[in-house]
Design a protein that fits this description.
The protein has one domain: Growth Hormone, Chain: A (Up-down Bundle). By secondary structure, it is an all-alpha fold. It is built from 16 helices and no strands. Helix 8 packs antiparallel against helix 14 and helix 13 crosses helix 14 (379-400). The longest helix is centred in the N-terminal third of the chain and has 34 residues, at 11-44. The protein has helices at residues 11-44, 50-81, 84-107, 113-141, 147-173, 179-196, 211-224, 226-242, 248-255, 259-283, 290-310, 314-341, 348-377, 379-400, 402-406, 413-420.
């Protein structure tokens, strides 16, 4: 049999791609509806004003992040020591149960803020195991020379599903509050089937060190490697300040006045922009001056966030969100490839979990930061100032981590250092 020349020629990569696509479509539909219902219940049932309801969106993000923070070291170790297929499948099954619980709560009219927060926390706990297990298995199923293209195509799965999921979630929510969750439950069941169909691959040989030491080794590896530390922390702090996603219900209902379906389109717009970029990268992945391009992409993300925060035109807002998503896709593609190729296989689960923690911290803590800022300044000022802050962070990181700017290719630098030794 001839060697594969494209990732999609590899059977197990196709299954990973399918599982990622349908699970992301399900969870993004569910997440956008959870945010919308949190904002609506805060406004109608509890009589909160716009700023108070916006703060509740920040609290929602925090409830997802806390279990993510607590479980990240364990999730990385599990991904390095257990069958990664089963880890991802069990975590996806937890998401399935969450979707069913929310569908039943809506159908019976017993949905409350407390229930939304509790299930959001459980969702955060499940998600911490999915990312490291899927990210760590991809380099095992495709040749190293195809990994940049595989990551771009994986990003396409995520981003295209993130277009479909929120748009469909908003469309179904406008018709029946339980429908988006039933859709999520059905698609998550399909994702579990795809994950279980992946061929078994033995995890790396178990080390003799105690589990707590192994967990700490992952954090030490990232902390001591300035290149990886710069990659991971750039996304953490830039998106922490520049996150506009959490405030979208406030913009949809009280700034742009476009309702449920408009909210779905707004949540889908960043993923649409990212999908177009991912399609391009799938055919022509970035190969040169990767570090500088990552830094420019993060700065572009901040600029698009700033313009979105100041926009009062729905079409312009959708356009800036698409640009925001495209810039983020370039940054994520480069950073993910650099992290995967610059990490030894026996450490990939733990390093992926730390990278995932940084992403979750930037997203969920960014939501809390945005919610807190909105409580004092209003959602418009909170998002606009956050976008400006992301630009400033990029400039600072360019000076703090010159290794990033100097990265010309994806060549694993840790192997270069071993060769020198």
């Amino acid at each position: 049999m001839s060697a594969a020349t494209h990732p999609l020629q590899v059977r197990d990569f196709r299954l990973i791609w399918l599982a990622r696509f349908i699970s992301v479509a399900a969870t993004t539909a569910m997440v956008v509806v959870i945010g919308a219902q949190t904002y609506q219940i805060a406004r109608t049932t509890y009589g909160m004003n716009e700023q108070q309801a916006s703060f509740m969106l920040g609290v929602l993000g925090l409830t997802q992040f806390i279990p993510f923070l607590i479980l990240t070291p364990l999730a990385g170790l599990v991904a390095d020591r257990m069958d990664r297929r089963y880890v991802a499948a069990v975590a996806t099954a937890v998401d399935l149960l969450i979707a069913i619980a929310l569908a039943l709560a809506n159908a019976r009219g017993v949905l409350t803020l407390l229930l939304l927060f509790a299930l959001a926390a459980l969702y955060g706990a499940a998600r911490v195991f999915i990312g490291p297990s899927l990210s760590a298995i991809v380099p095992n199923v495709v040749p190293a020379e195809l990994l940049p293209k595989a990551i771009a195509i994986s990003s396409l799965a995520w981003q295209s599903a993130a277009v479909l999921g929120p748009a469909l979630g908003g469309f179904l929510l406008a018709r029946n509050h339980a429908l988006p969750y039933w859709f999520s439950a059905a698609t998550l069941l399909l994702a579990i089937g795809a994950l279980l169909a992946i061929r078994h691959r033995a995890p790396p040989a178990a080390a003799k060190e105690p589990p707590l030491k192994l967990m700490g080794d992952g954090a030490k590896f990232v902390w001591r490697d300035r290149f990886l530390l710069g990659c991971v922390s750039l996304d953490l702090f830039a998106v922490l300040l520049g996150g506009a996603t959490a405030m979208m219900p406030a913009f949809a209902y009280d700034v742009l006045h476009v309702g449920d379906e408009g909210l779905g389109l707004m949540r889908a717009a960043p993923a649409l922009g990212a999908s177009l970029v991912a399609i391009y990268l799938g055919f022509r992945p970035i190969a040169r001056n990767v570090g500088a391009k990552m830094l420019w992409a993060v700065a572009g993300y901040g600029l698009a966030t700033l313009v979105f925060g100041l926009s009062t035109n729905f079409v312009l807002s959708l356009g800036t969100l698409a640009l925001l998503g495209g810039a983020d896709a370039i940054s994520v593609f480069i950073r993910s490839t650099l992290v995967q190729l610059n990490t030894p296989d026996e450490m990939r689960g733990r390093v992926s979990s730390i990278s995932g923690l940084a992403i979750s911290a930037s997203n969920e803590l960014g939501e809390m930061q945005s919610g807190l800022a909105a409580a004092f300044l209003g959602p418009v000022a909170a998002v606009a100032l956050g976008g400006a802050g992301a630009i400033v962070i990029t400039a600072i990181w360019t000076g703090l981590f010159p290794e990033l700017k100097r990265a010309k290719t994806f060549a694993p630098h840790y192997r270069k250092k071993e060769t020198v030794k």
